[in-house]
């Protein structure tokens, strides 16, 4: 994962200090690209441990078209808890409702309790990634399953230049709990290999980017298996690539570490549809990362 460490160095060297919505401050560059050959190893960062369980469950959640965090909570994944609770509090203010404390709110999500806010179910995030991937709304009241559509294109029109999936729905983005950061991805077939390029408008380089790399690499591998192709390249294009100022010491520690060999991620070959994968269908081999680096949250 030298590509990732080079990005950290680039931001530290050339980044401009900017303000941000959290009030923390960032060091930022604009426009950067990394490329990972998925046949050379699974691009899971080795200079710190990455929460692969969270990567897998979140991706399966997206692919189900789900937008409620209950599925994640049921599997011990808490990466969307803060956004769900913040969104709930915003709705409470808007409707004049006294909000629950955070843990009481998460318990209500687990128990699928009804809400006093009309049309809201505890844990909902509104039309975030999974909804846009699987149920992009049409003007006539129908919807478009972008994932099924793009898989059909890969199988039947592999030279198409229209094999894209978008999460940035301009009409709905202001109503989402969190506007999508990874907004658009495109597939490309050549030489029996499936490649994917992601455009990410906003990239929290220390905390989020290693997670995003692993997620889209895995998605590419899953779709390649369904389509009878080998995994190709994952190309990661970043818009605002930033490091939060309170991550400076952790970034320095990570840059002092030597990358270790990439692991192998094996998919259950019996699974023939991306929608049929379960957590147990993924096996990580030879992953020997440096210890995790604790960092302050950036939101």
What does this structure look like?
It catalyses: dUMP + (6R)-5,10-methylene-5,6,7,8-tetrahydrofolate = 7,8-dihydrofolate + dTMP. It is found in: Cytoplasm. This is Thymidylate synthase. The chain has 299 residues and is an alpha+beta fold. It is 33% helix and 22% strand. It is built from 9 helices and 10 strands. The strands form 3 sheets. It has a 6-stranded mixed β-sheet with strand order 1-2-8-7-6-5. A two-stranded antiparallel ribbon has the order 3-4. A two-stranded antiparallel sheet has the order 9-10. A hairpin with a 5-residue loop joins strand 3 and strand 4. Helix 2 (52-63) crosses helix 8 (209-227). The two termini are 26 Å apart.
Give a nutshell description of this structure:
The protein has helices spanning 2-14, 52-63, 70-74, 81-95, 102-110, 129-135, 146-156, 209-227, 248-255, and strands spanning 16-18, 26-37, 136-137, 143-144, 164-166, 182-190, 193-204, 230-244, 264-267, 282-285. By secondary structure, it is an alpha+beta fold.
What is the strand and helix layout of this fold?
Blueprint: H1 2-14, E1 16-18, E2 26-37, H2 52-63, H3 70-74, H4 81-95, H5 102-110, H6 129-135, E3 136-137, E4 143-144, H7 146-156, E5 164-166, E6 182-190, E7 193-204, H8 209-227, E8 230-244, H9 248-255, E9 264-267, E10 282-285
Parallel strand pairs: 7-8
Antiparallel strand pairs: 1-2, 2-8, 3-4, 5-6, 6-7, 9-10
Helix pairs in contact: 2-8
